[in-house]
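User: My collaborator sent over this chain with a note saying "see what the structure looks like." That's all I know about it. Can you take a look?
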Amino acid sequence: MDGAGMGAVGGVSGWFVVVLLVFLLTVLVVVLAYASVRVDDPDDGATRTLRERYAAGALDDDEFDRRLDRLREGD
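Assistant: Without extra context I'll predict from the sequence alone. Here is the result:
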């Protein structure tokens, strides 16, 4: 038997392999993009709390800006 009709990879269709590789590459790109967004997210707990207090009216503009600048200095 000379392997005629067996497909590209031992009986597995070449298209199946291509589709599988594209799918895996897509999953990898999505996971890396999500991880990048999560790592670069500057809205940590302290910043989120500060924004909530500002939105509730507990801080005026100057106090919010001062505290936000102070939080960003720590980065």
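A starting point for your reply to your collaborator: The chain has two domains: 7-39, 42-75.
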